[in-house]
Amino acid sequence: MNEGLSSIGIDVGGTKLLCGIVKADGSILTVRQAETRASHLLSDMEALVADAQAEARGLGLAVAGIGIGMKGAIDPRAGKLVRSITLGLADLDITGVLRNRSGLSAWIENDVHAATLGELKFGLGRKHRDFIMFNAGTGIAAGYVLDGRLHVGASGTAGEIGHMVVCGDLDLRCSCGRSGCLEDLIHRSRRGEQIAIASHEALKDVPIAYQLLALALTNLINAFNPSAVACMGGMLMNNAPMIDILDQTVRLMALYPAAEALAPIVPAYGGYQAGLLGAASLPFLYTDTGGRDAALKQGVNHVEAGRLYP
Ligand SMILES: [Zn+2]
């Protein structure tokens, strides 16, 4: 591993931008934060990158590139934001702008896919070929690593489990226009609305929002048979008691062979910085491998510090 190699990661959230320099061993050296201003998004990102480039020079580090993780509809092949409903933005060539300004390569992925790639490179991926990144924050989503590769799906939206239908009540209308979606029920429950679900005896004293998480995760475990699960997002970060409850109850509810194969559920390797670390992992994973598609096809966990390993 090249000790002097680093990357610049940018985690674009709905309210804040995080930009950091990360070394090839996963250590985060610097983090800068700015408010997310939709009207100035590109210029604010350019300014953060320019600061990070100067800091990297000061530290004597080469920069492999820029990685961006962003919530919303992303076209990673074109390097563009297709649409962000929360920011009211569409059709932005984010990587093109940053590349032109910085002279560095740049990649962008959906935020949870980027975080999953970070976990693949620096965390669970070191030991597991099949794992799930379970994100429970403002949004509910998952990333799947299947046989050592991030599974993105036919149109790149794999893992949008927030809109998994878990209740047939047509009055519970979700923002997506359909009804009975997991994320909407969790939001309603956390706002204090009464949501009635039939759950497992072991969950009867657990808040409904967490019962819903346990049901959803059990279904994912049955569907994908992972050997490990990492958690991220505000509902589960710094919440070891709830992660323990999730761990115990999914084992009671999942099919026996699936539960038996599962290692203890853990917080994401990057903790609160899982999104930033994931964004910063992209240049390490995609540099010198023929780009994103080739890297995904080859199994990006075989890529170390920009080099493809057999
Ligand atoms: Zn929905």
Structural class: alpha/beta
* SSE pattern: EEEHEEEEHEHEEEHHEHHEHHEE
Radius of gyration in whole Å, from Cα? Answer: 19 Å
What's the tally of helices? 9
Neighbour order of strands in the largest sheet: 3-2-1-4-8
Q: How many domain units?
A: 2
What can you see in these coordinates?
- The protein folds into two domains: 5-116 and 271-308, ATPase, nucleotide binding domain (Nucleotidyltransferase, domain 5), CATH 3.30.420.40; 124-267, Nucleotidyltransferase, domain 5.
- It is 34% helix and 25% strand.
- The protein has 310 residues and is an alpha/beta fold.
- Zinc ion binds next to loops.
In summary, what is this structure?
The protein is of the alpha/beta class and 310 residues long. Helices cover 34% and strands 25% of the residues.
Please write out the topology.
Blueprint: E1 5-12, E2 16-23, E3 28-35, H1 41-58, E4 62-70, E5 73-75, E6 80-84, E7 89-92, H2 94-102, E8 106-110, H3 111-122, E9 131-136, E10 140-146, E11 149-151, H4 182-190, H5 208-224, E12 228-232, H6 240-253, H7 256-260, E13 266-267, H8 274-286, H9 291-298, E14 303-304, E15 307-308
Parallel strand pairs: 1-4, 4-8, 9-12, 12-13
Antiparallel strand pairs: 1-2, 2-3, 5-6, 6-7, 9-10, 10-11, 14-15
Helix pairs in contact: 1-2, 3-8, 4-5, 5-6
Pfam families: ROK
Organism: Rhizobium puerariae
InterPro entries: ATPase_NBD, ROK
List keywords for this structure.
binds zinc ion; alpha/beta; disordered C terminus; 2 domains; five-stranded mixed sheet; Nucleotidyltransferase, domain 5
